[in-house]
Amino acid sequence: MESSPEVLRYAAFSTTPDGGNPAGLVLDARHLDEAGMLAVAAAVGYAETAFVTSQGVDGDPRRNLVRYFSPIAEVPFCGHATIALAVALSVRDGAGSFTFDTPVGPVVIETAGEGADITASFTAVEPHLAEFDDVVLAELLGLLGVGQGDLDPAYPPRIAYSGNWHPVLVFADRTRFDSFGFDPAAVRRLMD
Q1: Euclidean distance between CA atoms 92 and 52, whole angstroms
Q2: From 8's CA, which of 25, 30, 105, 130 has a CA 20 to 30 Å away?
Q3: Contact in structure between 102 and 162 (CB atoms under 8 Å)
Q4: In degrees rounded to 5, what are phi and psi of residue 74?
Q5: 44 by DSSP, 3-state: which?
Q6: Distance from CA of residue 165 to its chain's centroid?
Q7: In this predicted model, what pLDDT tens digit does every residue of 12-44 receive, in sequence order?
Q8: Are 69 and 104 in contact (CB under 8 A)?
Q9: What does the alpha-carbon distance between residue 73 and residue 164 come to, in Å, rounded to a whole number?
């Protein structure tokens, strides 16, 4: 019986462990298949967990094949898990440059510092904007319980890509923004 992989829990975009965006990290996932990675991500329960599935790609010890999983599916990319993974690898291997081969292409991450003072940065994949399909936008607004009139006309609704596609809606009124709610399962179905 194969043992469970070591899972690290890091917080990205934070100077304290209780802030930022939590990410699960598996620095050695060579023996996990897709179902195993999904099971680990579900057990971790964070928005995403990063898995190093191959180390030393093309003989470069600082180049790794990386996959990302939410508790319910594989995702093409995750910025905060990328930052967290680079920091964890810097703790283990020393600061400097890392390359992660991800489903959206190679991402180069620069790290600096040591110990608890490691910082990481990268340039995201090429961003893209697209217009909503009218039917999809109407469904999304319905799920959020808002109407077209609640949005700021200076910033039309768009779908933005920087590794994953996400809706971008700018509300005209802060109070309306603070008061909307939604059923996560229904929105998840639409996103899928």
Answers
A1: 14
A2: 105
A3: no
A4: -75, 140
A5: helix
A6: 11
A7: 988 776 788 999 999 999 999 999 999 999 999
A8: no
A9: 13
Give catalytic status of residue 2 as yes or no. no
pTM: 0.79
Q: Find the radius of gyration of the CA atoms of the chain.
A: 19
Catalytic residue, from 48, 126, 131, 139: name it: 48
Question: Three-state DSSP class for 120?
Answer: strand
pLDDT-wise least confident of 15-24, 47-56, 102-111, 141-150 = 15-24
Count other C-beta atoms under 10 Å from residue 165's C-beta: 12
Q: Which amino acid is at 167?
A: P
**Alpha helices by DSSP H, 18-171:** 34-44, 79-93, 134-144
Pair 9, 32: CB distance under 8 Å: no
Place of tokens 């779908």: 159
Distance between CA atoms of residues 155 and 162, nearest Å? 19
Look-up of token digits 């890509």: 161
d(CA 93, CA 79): 21
- Please state, in angstroms and rounded to a whole number, the distance separating the CA atoms of residues 142 and 168: 15
Q: How far apart are alpha carbons 171 and 150 in whole angstroms?
A: 6
For residue 55, give both structure tokens: 């180390």
- Collect all residues with Cβ–Cβ distance below 8 Å to 152 and sequence separation of at least 6: 170, 171, 172
Distance CA 119, CA 109 (A): 10
Q: Token pair for residue 14?
A: 């934070």
70's tokens: 């939410």
